[in-house]
Task: structure prediction
Amino acid sequence: MEETAYVSVEVPPLPYFLECGRTAYEPGEQHPARSGFAVFDLLVVDEGVLYMGEEGRHWNVERGQSLLLLPGRHHYPVKPCDVRTSFYWIHFDAPGAYVEIRNGNIAWEDPRRAHKPGWHDWFAPRALRLSKSGPVPLPEETFRALKELYDASAQGRYVSFWNDQRRFHDLLRLLELGRPPETGANVWRVAERIEAYIKRHYAEDVTNGTLAEALHFHPNYLLRCMKETFGCTPLAYLQRYRIEQAKLLLATTDLRIAEVAERVGYAYAPYFTNNFKRETGETPIRFRSRFRERGRV
Result:
């Protein structure tokens, strides 16, 4: 089975652009090896084939394909280019922690990020998902954006700074996985309607049946839309959204645990406590205590 891999970056804050360039190799030349490079390195090939490795994994990056190399990893050429090869490279950093997901499992985790039991890639306030390797989506638009960013790099940094960041974020939007493709736009729109409904009604009794009735779709279709767009079921999204709202109340109010539970949609406080612990690894009382201890430091 073909491996599916992507890098999920927690945002906000958004990744920020550092520099970019375009490099060409003649046959026999190759990309330099390096270790400890402290930022992301996005390579997008527009001619030939680039043979690259990272920590024992190898890729043949062909025309119209990209490879995202991670900070701090060992990057090296697998072999010299056998035809003329040119590619754009972009260095950027991301203050938000990141993970690499392979076939649905966490394969590499940012050392800055403490593991949370039950964490899922979409569970951050927002998760920017970028393909580890493979064809770039919308090639014509992507290469146009790359050229604009590269051409602008010839200007002075002070003059181009804000425009560079805007162009870079436009490029990330093109490269992001999970954005609405032309063939799946309706699935995406329905999933967003489910998400909006849950955020408005999370404190109420939300079920697959109430969602189907409110949105006028069969429950199985709603399930498919959420799985394809967010990687989870509607009720799993509801559960995690309720827990996030509970965290906010625990951190900012003195409400009793039972009151917090009721405000986020749980009629039975022990059930809320069990779900909270399963999602976060700690009880609501411990979460509140730890949060306030941290605030006094």
